[in-house]
Amino acid sequence: MSDARAMDPQTAGQDADWTGGIPVVLVSECGACGHRWYITRLRCPRCASPDVRRRPAVPTGTVAAVTSVSPRLSQDGAAVTLALVDLDDGIRIMARGVPELSVGAIVEWYFPERDQDAGQRPVPHVKVVEH
Amino acid sequence: MAWITGVGRTPFGRQPGCDALGWQAAAAHAALEDAGRLPADVDAMLVGYATTRNHLMPANLLAEYLGARPEIAMGVSVGGASGLAMIAQAARLVDAGAAHTALVAAGEDRASGQSRAASTATLAQVGHADYEVSLGGSVPAYYALLASAYLARHGLDARALAPLAVQMRAHAAATPGAHLREQITPDDVRAARVIATPLTLLDCCPVSDGGAAVVVSAEPAGAAAAVRIAGLGQANRHQHLIEADLGDTGARRSAAQALAQAGLAIADISVAGIYDSFTITLAMLLEEIGFAPPGGAGALAAAGEFGRGGRLPVNTHGGLLSYGHCGVAGGMAHVAEVVTVLRQSAPGTAGLVHADGGVLSAHVSAVLRAGPR
Questions:
Q1: A77 close contact with B: CB closer than 8 A
Q2: 20 to 30 A from B342, CA-CA: which of B126, B135, B182, B270?
Q3: In the 8-state DSSP scheme, what is residue B207?
Q4: What is the helix (H) or strand (E) element at residue B8, kind and residue range?
Q5: Is residue B128 less than 8 Å (CB to CB) from chain A?
Q6: Tens digits of per-residue pLDDT, A76-99?
Q7: Domains defined along chain A, listed by start
Q8: CB contact under 8 A, B197 and A67
Q9: Residue B70, CA distances (Å) to B22, B209, B210, B216, B257 in order
Q10: Residues A69, A78: contact at Cβ < 8 Å?
Q11: pLDDT tens across B315-335, in order?
Q12: 3-state SS of chain A?
């Protein structure tokens, strides 16, 4: 029953998400046990099944942590705000945000078009969901 | 179980002129001398990585330099937990009869052997290369995120962590060889420049040059009282922050395993050496291990409970926050300190050392007990 593609370390998990230049956050889901996760893996980290399915993650989630990092710490000298966001899909992602972001805020991920227009690799951002 | 018969710890600080191997050798000679042993007596050599050297075979390199010809040689990389992980492994080798005299060493010219940018970039790699580092992640940012979640969970403001930095500095003031010895107040901590909110410069350990080494033996040796390794524990439950369970990082499991092996309860511990790369690291470890109530580590520090005369003296040398941090040897300095305290204590007195690597990713705990004089 093995999925030849998932067994091949050269091609498995290569569905293009933002790390491959496609502006989307993907969630992986195990077809055998239902476990969901974020980072690229050959097999399910809970049951080791090779039946791994990837789909766009739900956009909404809750901010679990946020920090605004000194420009002195970044390679390009830019100030950056980083957040850990617990998506409603049950996965935790790291994303960029604004310094006003607070823990507990309801947000959604997006990819700023300006970055793509500028030819930069897209990275996930989050913004507060308007009520 | 095995004994710690020798410890060596060089001064930490910005001390140009010595490379990683030089710091390792200085600490190793001091530890061997303390144990009354020669390099030729060493039959197992465990050496931590150095970011400034990045050698494939650090134990063989140091063994040759010292003139040791050990049967067993290995390098270890579990981040800041590497030193204690090597001591644990040395104790297991001794217990198994595979080694009689094991030398564990680490040292690095982390401050003066590379630029600050290079050091930050190397350390950031404990984060996920694609999903964290590419966003602008760095070690201070990862721990700042932990601090953000911690403060929100407990309804505290950033000031809550400052007493931990103040206590470490007070300890360092009385410790020869400490990197930072100028006394500070909680106001100084908050007024220092921001590194990554809510952490300021004084919530973060400095980057230092230095070395540390430990000799683990099958029986007591040396002029000073030997200290018994009474219990060991380890836990490795995630690598990256995005995969971590912040309520169960592994610290409690690791320490509980070490205490159980020693047949002791947490209340039996009289002195502690707890990894303190940032104030938040120390707070989270003290609380998850059970030395402080949830959200209460800073308040206990402010009340003096972790001072030399307090209920549980913690990092009486000043810790990473003030004695300094030169990589793997930084975590081993806590071992040297607890051993030194236990040597002056009544037989049976118990201490606990805990180290973490990565982003609370790798945990190692050791319960040490003062042996007979």
A1: no
A2: B182
A3: P
A4: strand B3-9
A5: yes
A6: 778 899 999 999 999 999 999 999
A7: 24-56 (no CATH), 60-128 (2.40.50)
A8: yes
A9: 19, 27, 24, 14, 30
A10: no
A11: 999 999 999 999 999 999 999
A12: CCCHHHHCCCCCCCCCCHHHCCCCCEEEEECCCCCEECCCCCCCCCCCCCCEEEEECCCEEEEEEEEEECHHHCCCCCCEEEEEEEECCCCEEEEEECCCCCCCCEEEEECCHHHHHCCCCCCCEEEECCC
Using one digit for the tens of pLDDT, what is the confidence trace for B19-67? Answer: 999 999 999 999 999 999 999 999 999 999 999 998 999 999 999 999 9
Beta carbons within 8 Å of B85's beta carbon, 6+ residues apart: B76, B78, B234, B355, B357, B362, B364
Dist CA B275 CA B164 (whole Å)? 12
How far is the C-alpha of B155 from the C-alpha of B152, rounded, in Å?
A: 5
Within 8 A of A95 by CB-CB distance, chain B residues are 135
Residue B1 reports pLDDT greater than 90? no
A95 touches chain B (CB under 8 A): yes
The SS3 call for residue B82 is helix
Query: What span, in angstroms and rounded, lies between the C-alpha atoms of B245 and B89?
Result: 26
The answer to whether B141 contacts A69, with C-beta atoms less than 8 Å apart, is yes
If one counts every other C-beta atom within 10 angstroms of the C-beta of residue B68, the result is 23
d(CA B106, CA B47) in angstroms, rounded, equals 6
Contact residues, A window 44-63, toward B, CB-based 8 Å cutoff:
none
The whole-model pTM stands at 0.96
| Residue numbers in B near A70 (CB within 8 A) | 193-196
- Give all domains of chain B, ordered by start, each with its CATH number: 3-114+208-217 (3.40.47.10)
Alpha helices in chain B (DSSP H): 20-35, 58-66, 82-95, 116-124, 139-154, 162-173, 186-191, 251-262, 279-289, 297-302, 319-322, 328-343
Distance CA(B209)–CA(B198), nearest Å, equals 27
Please state the separation of Cα A11 from the chain's center in Å.
20
Residue pairs spanning A and B at CB distance below 8 A? 91
Q: For residues B84 and B210, what is the distance between their CA atoms, to the nearest angstrom?
A: 17
pLDDT tens for each residue of B62-95: 999 999 999 999 999 999 999 999 999 999 999 9
- Do B138 and A40 make contact, defined as CB atoms within 8 angstroms? no
**Residues whose CB falls within 8 Å of the CB of residue B129, separated by 6 or more in sequence, listed in order:** none
Using a CB-CB cut-off of 8 Å, the residues of chain A touching B240 are 39
Could you tell me if B105 and B216 are in contact, meaning their C-beta atoms sit under 8 angstroms apart?
A: no
Residue B76 CA: distances (Å) to CA of B30, B59, B308, B347: 21, 9, 32, 32
Token code pair at residue B277: 């790369």
Instruction: Report residue B226's pLDDT band, with 50, 70 and 90 as the boundaries.
Output: confident
The span from the CA of B345 to the CA of A89, in Å, is: 54
- In chain A, which residue's Cα lies nearest the Cα of B155? A103
